[in-house]
Amino acid sequence: MNAAVVWFKRDLRVSDHAPLAAAQAADAAVGLYVIEPEWLASPEFDAQHLDFALRCVAALRRDLAARGLPLLVRVGTLPQVLDAVRREFAFTRLLSHEETGPGWSWDRDRAVARWCRGHGVHWQEWPQTGVVRRLRTRAGWAARWQARMDAPLLPKPATLSGARLEIADLPTLAAPGVTAHDRALPAAGEAAAQALLADFLAGRGRDYPRALSSPLTAPQGCSRLSPHLAFGTLSMRQVHQATEQAVRATPDPVLARSLRAFAGRLRWHCHFMQKLEDEPAIERRHFARACDGLRPGDVEGGGAPFGEREYALFEAWCAGRTGYPMVDACMRQLRATGWLNFRMRAMLVSFAAYHLWLHWREPGLFLARQFLDFEPGIHWSQMQMQSGTTGINTLRIYSPAKQARDHDPDARHVRRWVPEFGTPDYPAPIVDERAALALAKQRLFALRATPQAREEADAVQLRHGSRRSGLPPSGSRPRRAGGGSRSATPLQQELFR
Ligand SMILES: Cc1cc2nc3c(=O)[nH]c(=O)nc-3n(C[C@H](O)[C@H](O)[C@H](O)COP(=O)(O)OP(=O)(O)OC[C@H]3O[C@@H](n4cnc5c(N)ncnc54)[C@H](O)[C@@H]3O)c2cc1C
Hints:
By secondary structure, the chain is α/β, with parallel strands linked by helices.
């Protein structure tokens, strides 16, 4: 008998779902979602992630039930859960999507592969983004991305031969011992994701290129699809194809132009995830090993852990009490809402890396817990890029004062999130900007000039660099300080943005 388990992970939808489509050929099938202790114990995890996942799972369970498929939801390690499920349902196939996740998820996948070999279960995996497993070269990657995104969407299965199994009520947050959080989450589940996408494409995205930089306009003007892409309530292919379709259909040239800009960002998603897929160590180690030990906190790279001074700086940054109002406002907005626009995320990291001279790992873990959309491949690539440790990207230092002038000229954002600004309760700047940046530049320029750094840069470019214009060589288009036309070496391309 062909008996299948469809293992749902970060793909909590029924449409454009290859494992679910394959389950249509099974004589009997069940869906499975596992709350893994390794996830709950990981330093990137926050209660908001499980809360959002469970809301998506509740919607998924209803959608699957309507098609005749029960969705089991279990807490435990994968081998334990698979053992338990197999006692109730003698399955022969495990169907799932590939995942590009943190180290614990790779270990988990190895354990699942061993378990399947040991129990004669055939495990089949499908890609669900543009990420290519076992990629040998970045040459041709963009064409493969395009081909995958243009492939026909898989329709929702009409009916499935669901096995008759008892499904218990969904666990609450407290069941696996997770304490509640106080963030208001966006609407979860596939229908909510589709509605959000449709609303953006129908007109909300019209101002996208202008709205995305300011923390005042970005919450409304950006798509806000990132949690849905992270939890897979939408596939990247669905977003890509719906966007192309909307560009063709709209008579409004402004909307069409804005949606084309948005479509470009979708490629970036997979481009950055591919880096973690190709080199899982980048969640802990520098792309450019020449940077090892450069900043305090780089324990993996042989550097010193944070001392008392660094802890104090780090805590002030986390709390939004650095004395730099734009930094503090953005951090507080993020902590309250679980989302921040790209430019302000980059500014927060640049501040931690250059002004405070902190290694990116601890700030990155803290931010991962704040971002509802935490996506490891994008996150760790961006953490390193904004900290100047990839070896190939332009060093980019964001000036909080300039960001405030450009994107919050009336201080509305600052007043909203830092009401005590301008009163004796607001702290003085925790570092002297001029002195801190002079030291940071001196250290980084000296490092980048070493033969080791130059050699390594070529290797990193070969392995991870994009081969096509339209992809982001450095996270967004480089602009030279002062806007001059003089040609600049990478070392001179220091930016104050
Ligand atoms: C330090 C740092 C950490 C980040 N961590 C994450 C993360 O954990 N998860 C995450 O999804 N994004 C991350 N980003 C990228 C970006 O900030 C978010 O994707 C974006 O703000 C999400 O909002 P949105 O869906 O409204 O984006 P939109 O602007 O509407 O873009 C649509 C989609 O395109 C993709 N995208 C947009 N910008 C980027 C980018 N610069 N790099 C890669 N993909 C992009 C995302 O999938 C996004 O959902 C990070 C950026 C920085 C600087």
